[in-house]
């Protein structure tokens, strides 16, 4: 799994009110690889640069962002403290990790729990398998919706008009030669996801990596993310991956309602 490198493709339409803008800027400034430049943060958040500078100056003053003094920004002490309070001893995190550890031991491969955050998937939990060769995923990584198995689970839960609007805003950029870049092809793939109850990423996001994911739902039944198993293609066959669908489904069903 390779990190999403581009901007948010039309996120400006979602910038919204002052609170939305501040949160989008905070999220963009805190993505891995910081410190980030003001212009890059503003573009990723879909906020005009002048407004971004004004808002980020306040976020630095209040400790939510930190400035390196050379035009770069990253998460500040208040964000780090908030993250620590949320994750340390969090019962939901402990349950997710415990369930994924059981799944990983059972199938002998890396597994993840990821959720939709805006226009991307964010990985919340990763449990690495025993193989020496691993994919490039990490906790906190943001990934496209249309090229990942987790993302396809999310997209399969959307109404057609919502999917069409999202694709119109973001496009379907290729990540590999196997990526689905046409809306009709994506619609057909998502129909398969709904029918069989799981999604496949067949080297569509990262060459040499094949994934299977099963949706995770909130308490109201809406798809919020998915559990996936990630395999290296030269170490495991597609048929073997498909054979673990029921095991992944059992884990995913055990997490329904955990995150809201």
Any key phrases for this structure?
10 helices, three-stranded antiparallel beta sheet, 260 residues, disordered N terminus, globular, Beta-Lactamase, alpha+beta, six-stranded antiparallel beta sheet, single chain, 2 domains, Arc Repressor Mutant, subunit A
Structural features, described:
With 260 residues, the chain is α+β, with helices and mostly antiparallel strands. It folds into 2 domains: 11-84, Arc Repressor Mutant, subunit A; 89-254, GAF domain (Beta-Lactamase), CATH 3.30.450. Helix content is 42%, strand content 19%. It contains 10 helices and 9 strands. The longest helix has 17 residues, at 91-107. The chain is globular.
Topology:
Layout: H1 18-29, E1 36-37, H2 38-45, H3 49-61, E2 65-67, E3 72-75, H4 77-87, H5 91-107, E4 110-117, E5 120-127, E6 142-143, H6 149-156, H7 160-170, H8 183-196, E7 199-202, E8 209-217, E9 223-232, H9 238-242, H10 245-254
Antiparallel strand pairs: 1-3, 2-3, 4-5, 4-9, 5-6, 7-8, 8-9
Helix pairs in contact: 1-2, 1-3, 5-10, 6-8
What is the H-and-E element order? HEHHEEHHEEEHHHEEEHH
- Cα radius of gyration in angstroms: 19 Å
Distance between the termini: 27 Å
Outline type: globular
Q: Supply the number of structural domains.
A: 2
Number of helices: 10
State the major sheet. 6 strands, antiparallel
Q: Would you tell me which CATH topology of the largest domain applies? A: Beta-Lactamase
CATH homology superfamily name of the largest domain: GAF domain
């Amino acid at each position: 799994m390779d990190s999403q490198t581009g901007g948010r493709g039309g996120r400006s339409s979602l910038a919204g009110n002052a609170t939305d803008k501040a949160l989008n800027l905070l999220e963009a400034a805190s993505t891995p690889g910081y410190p980030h430049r003001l212009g890059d943060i503003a573009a990723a958040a879909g906020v005009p640069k002048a407004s971004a500078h004004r808002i980020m100056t306040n976020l630095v003053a209040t400790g939510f962002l930190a400035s390196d003094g050379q035009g770069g920004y990253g998460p500040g002490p208040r964000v780090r403290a908030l993250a620590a309070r949320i994750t340390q001893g969090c019962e939901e995190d402990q349950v997710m990790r415990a369930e994924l550890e059981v799944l990983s031991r059972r199938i002998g491969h890396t597994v993840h729990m990821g959720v939709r955050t805006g226009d991307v998937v964010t990985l919340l939990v990763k449990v690495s398998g025993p193989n020496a060769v691993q994919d490039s995923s990490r906790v906190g990584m943001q990934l496209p919706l249309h090229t990942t198995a987790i993302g396809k689970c999310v997209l399969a839960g959307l109404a057609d008009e919502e999917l069409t609007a999202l694709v119109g805003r973001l496009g379907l950029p290729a990540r590999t030669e196997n990526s689905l870049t046409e809306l009709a092809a994506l619609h057909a793939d998502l129909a398969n996801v709904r029918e069989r109850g799981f999604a496949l990423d067949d080297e569509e996001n990262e060459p040499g990596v094949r994934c299977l994911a099963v949706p995770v739902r909130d308490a109201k039944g809406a798809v919020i993310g998915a559990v996936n198993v990630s395999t290296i293609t030269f170490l495991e066959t597609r048929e073997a991956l498909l054979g673990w669908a029921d095991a992944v489904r059992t884990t995913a069903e055990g997490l329904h309602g955990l995150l809201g």
